[in-house]
Structures are given as structure tokens and as C-alpha cells.
Amino acid sequence: MCSTLELPYSREILVELHYDGTVVVAISQWLRGKDDEPAEATPLTVSDQLLRSCCCDVIALVQEHQRELRLDCTQQLTVNLIAPHGPRPLEASTSFWGHVGMESVPNYSRRPHHTQPVHAVLSPTGSDVEASSVADIVHRDILAQFGI
User: Fold this and answer.
1) 50: phi then psi, degrees, rounded to nearest 5
2) In a designed cystine with 139, which of 11, 18, 55, 107 is the match (CB 3.0 to 4.6 A)?
3) Contact at 8 Å (CB) between 15 and 24?
């Protein structure tokens, strides 16, 4: 198990790799700092760029774990966003026209209080291109729940 939960001012990450091939990854989309979390009615912002990076990292981690264990069957992936302390509004912040680092919340996007799990499969014998494609699909399916 690898964890950054003890660090006070960083993004919290928890990774569990099990001998049966199960991989559990929890990544906090929100930075923990000196201030408490925003009021319950205030939407939590989900960064599109961070979400894309997390999808790619998790898929790569799962694929390498599959290869290390020499698994010979596809693995079911379930990805979901869960707000801390129960359901609350979530909003996706995206960048348009390739402006890296300049994200904003589109005014037409939905602000769900929870998202539905996204499912995908990953082959241990698949190429890196296939893994990248699965990460793109998972990322796109999560953002679609925001109307983006």
C-alpha cells in the first residue's frame, strides 16, 4: 500500500495492490490545506486536466499490475467520483481551445450531487495505445455526466 494521507498540504492518494489482481486507488481531487472544506452548498470543482491525468495514471498502474502478476484475463474497471462527507454539488472546470492551466466552469454544464460509476475493461496483453484509449473513454464518460 502506498499513501500520501499523512502529508498535511498535498493531494491525498491511496493505492492498494492486491495479490489477486485487485487494485484500489483513491485520489483526492481537492487539495487539503489550512482551511476547512467549503460550505455544503458550495460546489466542489473537479479539474478536467487533473481528472484526465488521474485516469491515465490509474489505467497505467492497473495494466502494469496485471503484467506483473501475469494475469491472463481482462480486468473490470469501475471509476467514480465521490464527494467527501456525502453528496454535494460537483462542477467540472475545463479548458477550451488548448489553453493549458486556464480552466473555467462552462455555464451550460450540469452540477450533479453525485456521479454514476463508469465501467471499462482492460486487457493485460493490450498495448499502451489500448490502455490510453481506455483512459480516454473513462475520462470522457465521467465528463459526460457534467454535460461536457
Assistant:
1) -65, -40
2) 55
3) yes
Helix axes 48-69, 128-144, angle to 10 degrees: 140
CA-angle at 142, arms to 37 and 56, nearest 5°: 90
For 17-64, the DSSP string reads: E-TTS-EEEEE-SS---SSPPPPTTSPEEEEHHHHHHHHHHHHHHHHH
Q: 0.90 cut: is pTM over it?
A: no
Q: Cα–Cα distance between 17 and 98 in angstroms, integer?
A: 35
Q: Give pLDDT tens digits for 45-68.
A: 888 888 888 899 889 889 988 888
Q: Is 113 helix (H, G, I), strand (E, B) or coil?
A: coil
CA 137/CA 142 separation, integer angstroms: 9
Model confidence at 104, pLDDT cuts 50, 70, 90, reads confident
What are the cell numbers at 106?
462552462
Residue 90's beta-bridge partner residues?
A: 44
Structure confidence by residue, pLDDT tens digits, 117-138: 999 999 888 888 999 999 999 9
Grid cell of 135 as nine digits: 483512459
